[in-house]
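Quick board copy: two proteins, each given as sequence then C-alpha cells.
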Amino acid sequence: MPDTNSSMKNLPVTDIHSNQSFLRWRLLKDSLARYGVIAGGMGVIFAVVMIFFYLLYVVLPLFLPATAELVSQYDVPEKALGKTVLLDMEEQNEVAARFTDTGKAVFFLADTGKVVSIQAVAIPEGVVVTSFSQGSPINEGAVVYGLSDGRAVIVKHTYKTTYPNNKRLITPALEYPLGEQPLVLDDSGAALEKIAVQVGDNATTVIAKTAGTSQSAGRIHLTGFEKEQSLFADEATLQRTDAVINVPVEGVADILIDKEGRNLYLVSSNGRLAYYDISDKGAPALKQAQSVVEAGQKITSVCFLTGDISLLIGDSSGLVTQWSMVRDDKNRMAMEKIRAFKVSDKAVVDIKAEQRRKGFVTVDTAGHFGVYHSTAEKELIKEKGVGPLSTFTISPRANALLMQTDGTLGFWRVNNPHPEVSFKSLWGKVWYESYPKPDYIWQSSAANNDFEPKYSLIPLVFGTLKAAFYAMLVAMPLALMGAIYTAYFMTPVMRQYVKPTIEIMGALPTVILGFLAGLWLAPFMEEHLAGIFSFVALMPFIVMLFAYAWHNLPKEFLEKIPEGWDSAVLIPVILLGSWFAFAVSVPLESWIFHGSIRDWFKNELGIGYDQRNAMVVGVAMGFAVIPTIFSIAEDAIFSVPKHLTVGSLALGATPWQTMSKVVLLTASPGIFSAVMIGFGRAVGETMIVLMATGNTPVMDISIFQGMRTLAANIAVEMPESEVDSTHYRVLFLAALVLFSFTFVFNTLAEVIRQRLREKYSSL
C-alpha cells in the first residue's frame, strides 16, 4: 500500500496547499450540511410542538372551573318602601331595580346600593297589591301587579343609555304598554291571588287566579289583548278576549305562560302539572296533566329555562328536574322529564334561568346557591350564601348575581364563560330540547339566543373516519397493485412514462378535484348509479376473460408484443368493458329493480340517497390519495436489492413467488409507510370533503349518505365564530383532536414500520 504522507511530500508545494484547501472546504460544506439538516429537523419538531401548545392554550379555558366572588354587601336600598317582590339588573350590571309590594320601583347602583331614582307604579288608591309576576325577560322587563279589586297593572322598566362627556349614563324609567289605567280581569272584584303575564309587540296575555267570595267561587281568568291597526285610524285599537279555565283553583300554586303566549302551565304544590294550549284565547284546551315529582314530595319552585321550551321544577328533596316537550311514538307532543340535578339535601326555594344560555341558578332553604348548565348536565359553582335568601336575580349576561337576605344585598361577580362544555356534551349522548331521545348532534349556531348549542364531536370524528375509510377502500387496492406491477413487472421504458404521470396526479389542487366531484361526478353517479354497480361487478370478469383469451393466443402473435408492455393492451379492454357495463346497466336496472335502483333502495331497504355522499368522496378523495401511496410504495418495491430477486429466481422460485415471498416482505416497511401517509392525507383532507358531500354532521354508515369531517367543519365554521367564544374554542378543540389523532396514529405506524424493518432486514 503506498504511503500517503510520502506521496504528499513528493507533490509541489502549491498542489499540497490546493489539496488542503479543497479538503477544508469539503469538510466545511459537510459540517454546514450536517448542521443545516439538524437545524431543519429541530425546526420542524419545534414547529409541531408549538402548534400543539398553541392549540392547547386556546382550548384550556374551556375546562377551567367557573367562579363566583362576593364583591360588595350593603343594606337594602329604601327598605321602608316595602318588601321586595322582584330584583332585576340591566345588561351592564350597573343599575339594579327593586320592585316592592307597595308598588314602588327603587333603582340603585348594583355594586354600592346608591339610589338612582324612586318611581311609583300607577296603583290606584284604596287597593292593595295581592300578587306579582314577571314576564319573560326578553320582553323588556314587563311585570304585572295583581290588585285586591280584581284589576291588574302592567308596567315595564326600561333603561336608556347616553354618553354625556364621553361617560356612560344609564337612566331607568317605567312604561305602561297597555296604558296606566288598571285592567279589569275579574268583574266581581275578587282579589287576584296569583297572576302571570306575557307582553309582546302585538299581543299580551294575562292569566289570573282569583280568590273566592261570598257571591262566587275562585276562578282562573285568561285575558288576551291584541293590537289591531285600522287602515283609516292613526292609533291601534286593543281587541280583548276573555275565557275562564275550569280547574279547581285551590291547588294552583304557580302559573306560567310561555313567551309566545301559546302555552299555559298550572302548577300545584302537591306535584301536579297541567299543560294547556291557549293559542285560541277564547277556548283554552287541556293537553296534559301529570305528576312531576316523586311521591311524598312537593313542588317548591318552578321557572322556564331560556327559550320557554322546558320547565325547571324544584322540589322539597333538593332535586331539580327538567321537563320538556317531546314527540312520543304516536307523534304527539307531551311533557317528559329529560334530566335531573341533585342540587341540595334541602328544599329548593327558588330557581332563576339565565337569559341567553341554558344555565340556571338555584337557592335552597339554607341560602346556599349553585350554578348549573342543563345541556352540559354540569354543576359549575356551589357556594354558601350569606344567610337565608328572600330573593335574588341573575344579570342578563349571567356574569353577576344580586342576592337579598332579610336586610342586606350582596353583589356577586361570576366568571363562567364556557358552561356549555363538559365531557358528556362533547363525547356523550345528550337529550336536547325538542328531540325524541338522547343523541349525538353537532349544531353550533342559530338565529336567536334561545338556541341550545350542540357541540358533540362524535359526528365529526365519525365523518372523518368514514370519509377516510371509503377513500382508502378505493385508493389502496389500485395504488398498491399498480405500484407492485410498475416496480416489478413493467418494462423500464414504460415505467418511465407511467410513474411520472401518476405522480403528476398528486400535484392537482384538491379544490379542483372537489369542484369537479361536486359539480360533475356527483350528478353523474346519481344518474348512472346502476352503471357504477355494473362496472364494479362486471369489470373483474371482463379482465379475467381477456386474460384467458390472451393466454390462449398463438405464440407468434404474443411474441410481437414487447415484454413488459402487456398492460398497455389492457387499456382498450378496460375502456370497452366500461362502455359495456354502463350500456347493459339500463336494461338490467329496469328488469331487476323495475325502475330506478335509487327508488328500490329507498322503498325496499329504507336506504335514502343523497347526491353528494360517501361514494362520491371515496372516488374523488381516493383519486387524490392514489399518487401518494403509489409513489412511496413503488419506490420501496423498486429499491429492493436485485441480488435478492436474482437469487430467488436462481433457486427455482417463480416471479410471483419471488414477488410475494421476498420482494413484498423486504419492501413491507415502505409499503406500510405509504399506506399510513395516504391515510393521514385522507383524514386531513378538507376541500374535497367540503365540496363533494352534503357537509351534514350525520352518523350514517351508508355509502349513499354524506358526512362532515373535523377538517371541513373547522374550515366552514371558523370564519363565522366569535373570537374566544365557546364555539371558537370548541373548533380549536376539534383541531387538537385531529392533531392528536394523526400524531398518535403516525407514531404507532412508525413503531410498526421499524419492527417490520428489523424483522426483514436479514433478507
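And the next:
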Amino acid sequence: MNIEDKLVCAIQAAARSLYGADVAAESIQLQKTKKEFEGHLTLVVFPLVRLSRKKPEDTADEIGRYLVEHEPEIVERYNVIKGFLNLTVASRCWIGLLEGIRADGRYGFRQAGEQAPLVMIEYSSPNTNKPLHLGHMRNILLGTSLARIMEANGNRVVKTNIVNDRGIHICKSMLAWLKYGGGETPESSGKKGDHLVGDYYVAFDKHYKAEVGELMAQGKTKEEAEAEAPLMQEAREMLRKWEAGDAEVRALWTKMNQWVYDGFDETYRRMGASFDKIYYESDTYLEGKRKVMEGLERGLFFRKEDGSVWADLSAEGLDQKLLLRADGTSVYMTQDIGTAEQRFADYPIDKMIYVVGNEQNYHFQVLSILLDRLGFKWGKSLVHFSYGMVELPEGKMKSREGTVVDADDLMDSMVEAAHETSEGREIRLDDFTPEEADEIARIVGMGALKYFILKVDARKNMTFNPKESIDFNGNTGPFIQYTYARIRSILRKAEAAGLTVPAAVDTAISLNEKEESLIQKIADFRAVVAQAGSDYSPSGIANYAYDLVKEYNQFYHDFSILREENEALRGFRLALSATVARTVKAAMGLLGIEVPERM
C-alpha cells in the first residue's frame, strides 16, 4: 500500500472517531503540498466540514492532532493553512515505502497473463530500394520503446513490420543494376546490401534525368519527356513482367531484395530493434484486392463506370476513397486491408497500433472505418501512433545521396562523437582495454541518439542536434548514463571497503527532505509507466528518468554516502542509491537504451 492509500485509510478512521461518520475514499482529496509550505501531502478539508460542523481551520486541526496521536508511523507533524491540512509524512513511512519497492524486483511492471490483451504494433515499414534513414530511425525507436512500454503494462505484444518490396521504385534499382552494375555484389564491393541497392536507385535517377533533359532539348514538354524516357519505359516493362511472374525478373528481385534485408538486419541489430513477424506487400496486395472484391459483393463498396472500386464515406463526414484502380491495380489502402486480413488470421489481435508519420493521419482515419466495415473487431479502435518529422540543424549530415541522413552514417558519427568526448573531462576510457572503450563509446553514442529522439513528444516535429545530444549536462542520455555509472561506482567502492547494502534499513533513522523526495520520485515510477502506456508516450518515461537523476545528483552533492559516520544512515543511503540505479536502468530499458556499469 502506498503512502497516499495509507493516509486515506487513516483519515477515514479519524472521521469515524471524531465525527461518527464513514467517509468514502473517493471524497478524500489529497494533493502534493505546495513548495512554499511545510509538508508532503495536503488534505483539502472543506468536504469534511459538513461532518464536523466546525470551521475549516478547526476541522483541519482536529484531524491533524488525531493523525499525529493515533498514526505516528504515518504522520509526524502537521500545520493548517485555512481549509488545508498539510501533513509531514514520518521517516519510517518513507523507509517502509522504499523497502516495499526494493522487495519488488519488477516494481512498476505488470506481468502479462495468458488472457492479457494482445497488442500488435507495426513500425519501420521500409522500402527495399534504399537504406534506412533518420526518419526511419524515429519511427523504429518509437515503435521499439512503445512495445516495451505496452509489455510493462501487462499486455502481450507482437511487433510487426510491413516491407514495401514491390512497385516501380523497386524496379528502378533492379534495372539500373542490370545496366550499370557489371555484376557488382555486396561481397565484391564491400558495401552493405541496402547501400548498394540504394546507390543504383540513385544511378537510375541520374540517368533518367539525363534522358529527360535530352528529350526536352529536342522540343518535348517535361511531361512528355518523362513519359517517353526509354529508362522509365523499361522500368514499367520490368514491373509488368514482375506482376506476370516472369522467372528472370522474379529471380533478380529476390536476389536484390535479400541484399537489402541483410543490410536492414544489421542496422536493426545496431539499433536494438527486432520483429516477431514481417509482412511483405508483395503478398498482401493480392489479399487486399480479394478483400475489397468481397466487400464489393457485400454492398460495402461500389464500382464506378470506368471499373474502379470506391468506398463512400459521406456518412462519416468524409469523401469517397479509391480502393482499386480502373485497371484493377491496388492502392496503399488496399494493401493495408490485405495486411490486416493476414494479421487477423495469424493472431487474435485485441488492439492494433500503427507507428506512422503524421502525414498519414487521414489515411488511418479512413482505414479504421473500412476495417470496421469489413468486420475486424479492432478496426474501429485501431491506434495511429502519429509522429512528427525529424531533421538535423543543417538539414543533413553525412549522406550518400546528399538528400537524406543515412541511419548507419548517423550511428557511426554518434559513436565516434562519444569516443571524442572521452578525450575531454566527462568520460575517460584510458583505463579500459580498446574493446571495453569501444563498447562504452557504442553504449554512450547510441544512448545519446535514442534519448534525444525519444525525449520529445512524438506528435511534435523535432530537430535532432548531434552536438547537444552527446552533452553530459542537461536533459541528455549521457547525463543519465553517467549518473547510473556514478552510482555503480559508489556501490563498488562500498563493497571494496567491506560496506554492504543492508538487507533491511533501520527504520529509526530520520530522513532529510531530499531523501524523502527521492523515495517519492522512485515510487512515482509505477504511475509513470502506467501513464506512458495509456498515453502511448515514450517521452514520459524519458523525462521521468532525467528528473530522477537530476534529483539524485542534488542529493549526492549535498550529502555524504561512503563518508557518513552514522552506520544506519550510511546503509540507508547505499540502499537508496542502489534503488535509484535500478529504477534508472529500468526506465532507460523501456526506451531501449543501455546503461554502462563504468564510464
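Board note added afterward: Residues 258 and 541 are 36 Å apart (CA to CA).
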